[in-house]
Design a protein that fits this description.
Length: about 140
């Protein structure tokens, strides 16, 4: 798809209730670590990144991963996967973006703000969340 058919928007993933002292990072490309952060006392972590949207909608960008013809998602790397080799965890959170409501996409493409997805950073067992993590909320900020 030609770049001329794409509009860049900003997205933000906010990890609420992350496990304190565990490094998290946005994944860039297939394996790269981008913007590593740790919560000292469970305060939220935020990761901002650009996404290119084409009609369909179709999603493109360095942080956008694909699975099948439609599913698009972003990985948040956790523990060793985020570059903390002393961590007992090596995980990734998979956060879907392909199902972002069209009205939010339209408003973001019109320059009205950043699409913010909020997820819970702690699993039911008290360890860092991993695998597919469903957004608790999606909004324009």
């Amino acid at each position: 798809m030609a770049k001329a058919d794409q509009v860049e928007i900003r997205m933000r993933i906010v990890i609420e209730n992350p496990v304190a002292g565990v490094r998290h990072s946005l994944q860039t490309g297939d394996t790269g670590v981008l913007d590593p952060k740790e919560s000292q006392a469970g305060e939220p972590l935020a990761f901002d990144f650009p996404v290119h949207i084409a009609p369909g909608p179709k999603f493109f960008g360095d942080q956008v991963r694909r699975e099948g013809p439609e599913r698009r998602f972003v990985y948040i790397r956790v523990g060793q996967a985020a570059g903390d080799h002393g961590s007992p965890w090596t995980r990734r959170m998979k956060i879907d973006i392909h199902d972002t409501p069209q009205d939010l996409l339209d408003r973001a493409m019109a320059g009205e703000g950043v699409i913010e997805l909020t997820v819970n950073g702690t699993g039911k067992d008290g360890s860092p969340a991993c695998a597919t993590v469903r957004p608790l909320s999606r909004r324009l900020v």
